[in-house]
Specification:
- It contains two helices and no strands.
- It is mainly alpha-helical and 38 residues long.
- The longest helix is centred in the middle third of the chain and has 26 residues.
- The radius of gyration is 16 Å and the shape is rod-shaped.
- The N and C termini lie far apart (54 Å).
């Protein structure tokens, strides 16, 4: 059970961190740029 749970937890923790890390920086700069342009 531990072997099965660990991979699932690792995937869940890696996916959100990766998505947040990738989306965070990319979304943050465009938002101020768009606001400044407007």
């Amino acid at each position: 059970l531990k072997d099965r749970v660990e991979p699932i937890v690792s995937k869940l923790t890696l996916k959100p961190s990766a998505s947040m890390g990738i989306k965070g920086p990319k979304i943050d700069p465009p938002n101020p740029n768009k606001k400044n342009c407007i």
